[in-house]
Write a structure and sequence with these properties.
The protein has one domain: 3-Layer(aba) Sandwich (GIY-YIG endonuclease), CATH 3.40.1440.10. Helices cover about 40% and strands about 30% of the residues. β1 and β2 form a beta hairpin. The longest helix is centred in the last third of the chain and has 12 residues. The chain is globular. It comes from Candidatus Andersenbacteria bacterium RIFCSPHIGHO2_12_FULL_45_11. This is GIY-YIG domain-containing protein. It holds the Pfam family GIY-YIG.
Length: about 80
C-alpha cells in the first residue's frame, strides 16, 4: 500500500502539509467531512498542489516533517 506526503493550498492562500495512505479519500475529508483537519475545515476549499508517494508510512511521515520545517517559499518551489 502506498503512502503519500502532500501539500494543500487553502482558500485563504495558506499551505497545509500532511500524510496519508489514501490521497483521494483524504482530500475529500479535508474539503467536506467533519474528519478533516481543523486547520483546513475553516479554510475550505482546499486544492492538492503537491504529493509524493512512499512505500512505508514512516517514510511519508519523515518527509511530511521535513516539508513542514521549510519556509513557505521553499514549499512553493515544489509546485510553482
Amino acid at each position: 500500500m502506498p503512502y503519500y506526503a502532500y501539500i494543500l493550498e487553502c482558500a485563504d492562500g495558506t499551505l497545509y502539509t500532511g500524510f496519508t495512505n489514501n490521497l483521494k479519500r483524504r482530500l475529500i475529508a479535508h474539503n467536506s467531512l467533519k474528519s478533516g483537519a481543523h486547520y483546513t475545515k475553516i479554510r475550505r476549499p482546499v486544492v492538492l498542489k503537491y504529493s509524493e508517494e512512499f512505500a512505508t508510512s514512516g517514510e511519508a511521515k519523515k518527509r511530511e516533517a521535513e516539508i513542514k520545517s521549510w519556509t513557505r517559499m521553499k514549499k512553493l518551489g515544489l509546485f510553482k
